[in-house]
Structures are given as structure tokens and as C-alpha cells.
Design brief:
heterodimer; A: 170 residues; alpha+beta; 7 helices; B: 201 residues; five-stranded antiparallel beta sheet; two-stranded antiparallel sheet; 6 helices; 17% strand; globular
Chain lengths: 170, 201
């Protein structure tokens, strides 16, 4: 699958097969995330990998009860880790760490697509409830939850603006 | 990994027979992991301009990025005007290399597009994430096309927004110079996965 095909093929998948992910594929997704750029290469984010069913159910509950989160064999939580970006002051802590985590999640999504896996970017959650559910260390803030597994649905592509509406030429 | 900017054109498989209005003119052969591994922050650019179809392909890739509720809470400004590029460089802690790229893409958040459905979280979090996801796609598409980029965070968003005359409510969040690379930076180190990934109970 070429990069362009992966970009086109990526969908938000909310139903997963009851089939585990091969360790090699999981590794490829994590390696891709680890290659993401970050401000000053400070990599101000962490990834928490969840397999435990009870923890996944708690994460689903913390995410406005989006039950499909618990259905995926693996759930990845991308957390901002602001103290790693402290070199850049409050902008580093408040913005760069969030961007670093976000970019890593975006890379993981594309790598997952390339591996035949599916994800859904879950952003609607109660931060504190997620921290409690996954027992996240102090000083980390969840910014994206990605359930990861083989897709059990094939959603249609979602519409996009025409480039003329999105792009403004100066 | 060979330097992406110097990859011979023959590595691209032209698919003119398949060409449709919405498709790329040339379909590169790099896959996701190759593009991710090849991406580097480029801060020196050739004077050479970017082919319009390559710029278009980068923009199309950005437009495919996911966004919260598919609200696409961002805009892209394509800057070619030299004085504007210099004003952006000045706004970005005087990182002068910005003005040497033939094109600077400015990714602006549009919080109101997300706030309409998601309220404050939409404006403060989702709009930023939508924007970042689009930048990610653009960066990787650029690599595949032999182009270089560098994620530049506008240090002074207000000054950058003013330089572009952005409408109220939009913030110039990320500046992405785009051009053919004229340097081969060393690879930047990463943590081993064992330090990055925690396996939770």
C-alpha cells in the first residue's frame, strides 16, 4: 500500500473483529509513532498500551460511553508529557507536548492502516476518568485514545471540503 | 534510507492512463513506513520551485486527514509572496530559513468550526488536533514527492496571523515551509520503545 493509498484508505472504524493483533504489526505501529517529529525532538509524550478488558471498559465509560473502545483487542492512549517540553516554557508545556502526542497518534493511525489494521481517533473523554481508569502517572495528560484492531466494518468515506474552500492562496 | 529529495524521478510510476481529475498525475511508490522513516526536518531549500501538481497532491493529502466529527476545523494558506514569507519568518522567532522555501503553508485553526458542535473542548483541543493531523498528512505526502518540510510553530501567532490578514477567529498555528531539500540533516535520536510505551495492567 502506498502512502497515498493509506491516506485515502484510513477510516474511523468503530467495530472490531475478535482477533488479536500480531506482535510484529503492533510493533510497526509503535515504531511509526516513535518516528514522529516533536518540538526540539523532546518527544514530550508517552504511549500507554491497554489490553485488560476491565481497563478497556473503564476507558469506554470515560469516553462518553463509546463502547467500541472496549471491543478492540488493544487500546493506545497517547498522553502529553509536558515536563519533557519544559525547555520551551509554558508554550512547550501547554501546546508542544499536546502537538507531539497528536502527531505520534496520526502516524500510528497511518501505520495501522498500512498494516491492515483499523483505528478510531477518540478525543471525547473525561481526562480525569481516563487517568484513573488507566492509572496514568502524575504529570501526563491524555490527548488521544486509539482503539486498534482488525476492522469489522467498512465505513464509507466521509466528505471533505473542495480544496478551493480549504486552501487560500497568497 | 536514501535521501528522499534526491530520489530519481524514475522511482515514480506515472499513471497518466489512469488520470482522473481528482487523482495525482504521478503515483509515487513509497509506502507509509518508508515515508515516516524518511521524513526529516529540512531547513535549507533549493531555489527551484515546486511543480503545481506536487503542491496540489500535498494539499489533497492534508484534506484527507481525520478531524473531530469531520468538522475540519482548520484552513490552509499557501504563501508564495516573498514579503509575506519574510513577515512569517520574523513572527517565528526570526527563523529565516522559512523565507527561503518557495512555498510556505500556514495551517490555521478555526476554532468556531469545532466549537459549534463541541463547545470549548472543540475550540481549544479538537481544532488544534484537526490542524496537526492535516499537517502530518501534508508532511508525509511531501516526503513521498521528494519535497522537504519543517514543522515550525508560530512563536507569535498574532503576528503571523496579522501578516496573512487572517479572518477573526483563525489562528496561524503551524508554519510548514515546503520545497526541494538542499541539505541532508543527521537522523535525530529516539527513545527505545521500552521507554516510550507503557504496558498497562
Amino acid at each position: 500500500m502506498t502512502l497515498w493509498e493509506a491516506i485515502r484508505a484510513r477510516r474511523s472504524v468503530r467495530a472490531y473483529q475478535d482477533r488479536d493483533i500480531e506482535p510484529k504489526k503492533l510493533e510497526a505501529v509503535l515504531e511509526a509513532a516513535n518516528l514522529a517529529p516533536s518540538a526540539g525532538n523532546l518527544q514530550a509524550y508517552e504511549i500507554h498500551l491497554i489490553r485488560d478488558a476491565k481497563t478497556k471498559r473503564a476507558l469506554a465509560a470515560a469516553s462518553l460511553d463509546q463502547q467500541f473502545v472496549a471491543q478492540a483487542p488493544v487500546v493506545l492512549i497517547f498522553c502529553a508529557h509536558p515536563s519533557r517540553s519544559a525547555k520551551y516554557g509554558s508554550r512547550g508545556a501547554q501546546l508542544y507536548s499536546v502537538q507531539d502526542a497528536t502527531i505520534a497518534a496520526a502516524y500510528a493511525q497511518l501505520a495501522a492502516t498500512a498494516e491492515g489494521l483499523a483505528t478510531c481517533w477518540v478525543g471525547a473523554f473525561d481526562d480525569e476518568a481516563v487517568i484513573r481508569a488507566a492509572q496514568l502517572p502524575a504529570g501526563q495528560r491524555p490527548v488521544a485514545i486509539l482503539p486498534l484492531g482488525y476492522p469489522a466494518e467498512q465505513p464509507a468515506p466521509t466528505p471533505r471540503r473542495a480544496l478551493a474552500d480549504l486552501v487560500h492562496r497568497h | 534510507m536514501p535521501r528522499t529529495g534526491r530520489r530519481p524521478e524514475s522511482r515514480y510510476v506515472c499513471s497518466s492512463l489512469l488520470s482522473q481529475v481528482a487523482r495525482l498525475q504521478c503515483q509515487p511508490v513509497m509506502n507509509v513506513l518508508e515515508a515516516i522513516a524518511a521524513r526529516q526536518s529540512i531547513r535549507v531549500y533549493q531555489a527551484r520551485d515546486i511543480e503545481p501538481e506536487k503542491l496540489e497532491a500535498v494539499l489533497r493529502a492534508a484534506n484527507q486527514a481525520p478531524s473531530a466529527g469531520n468538522l475540519q476545523a482548520y484552513h490552509i494558506y499557501v504563501v508564495r509572496h516573498q514579503a509575506t514569507k519574510e513577515a512569517l519568518a520574523a513572527a517565528a522567532a526570526n527563523q529565516k530559513f522559512l523565507a527561503t522555501a518557495p512555498v510556505v503553508l500556514v495551517f490555521a485553526t478555526d476554532g468556531a468550526r469545532s466549537a459549534a458542535k463541541f463547545g470549548a473542548r472543540g475550540e481549544q483541543v479538537y481544532a488544534v488536533q484537526d490542524t496537526c493531523a492535516a499537517v502530518c498528512n501534508a508532511m508525509l505526502a511531501a516526503v513521498e514527492l521528494g519535497l522537504g518540510t519543517c514543522w515550525v510553530d508560530a512563536v507569535d501567532e498574532q503576528a503571523a496571523s496579522q501578516a496573512l490578514g487572517l479572518p477573526p477567529g483563525q489562528r496561524a498555528a503551524v508554519l510548514l515551509p515546503l520545497g526541494y531539500p538542499a541539505e541532508t540533516p543527521p537522523r535525530t535520536p529516539r527513545r527505545p520503545l521500552s521507554e516510550l510505551v507503557s504496558y498497562c495492567p
